[in-house]
Specification:
With 120 residues, this protein is α+β, with helices and mostly antiparallel strands. The protein has helices at residues 3-12, 54-60, 90-106, 110-115; strands at residues 16-21, 25-30, 33-40, 46-51, 66-68, 79-82.
Length: 120
């Protein structure tokens, strides 16, 4: 997945916002909460970081091309960084980004979900 494809996919999800921060990371949020972070690997390819369930985190962290996300996993957060397609193709990556989005929206306060027009 290219960085443009990553950004286009995240933009297709409802109620998302986009910001470039943290030294050029492409950060996608819903209700002000991060659900995906992407960027370039020294011009070699795209990396994408997403939130994962505990079970998915335990399974994915050991797969080639995937690892616990730097800075996030060290704080006990269950985020995975996808750096290559060795173990996960683009469709699988889109599925995990979509699930990250779902997990983040599920934790949004009721008032924010209501403001965004999301079902309770």
């Amino acid at each position: 997945m290219t960085l443009d494809e990553y950004n286009a996919f995240c933009a297709s999800l409802p109620h998302t916002t986009y910001v470039v921060q943290w030294r050029g990371a492409h950060v996608w949020k819903v209700g002000g909460k991060v659900f995906a972070i992407g960027g370039l690997n020294d011009g070699q390819g795209t990396w994408v970081t997403f939130k994962a369930s505990e079970m998915a985190f335990d399974m994915l962290k050991q797969q080639p091309g995937l690892r616990p996300a730097p800075h996030m996993a060290s704080r006990g957060l269950k985020w995975i960084q996808h750096a290559s397609n060795e173990s996960m193709d683009d469709e699988g990556l889109r599925d995990y980004i979509r699930e990250s989005y779902r997990m983040v929206t599920a934790k949004l306060p009721r008032a924010i979900r209501r403001e965004l027009g999301m079902a309770p």
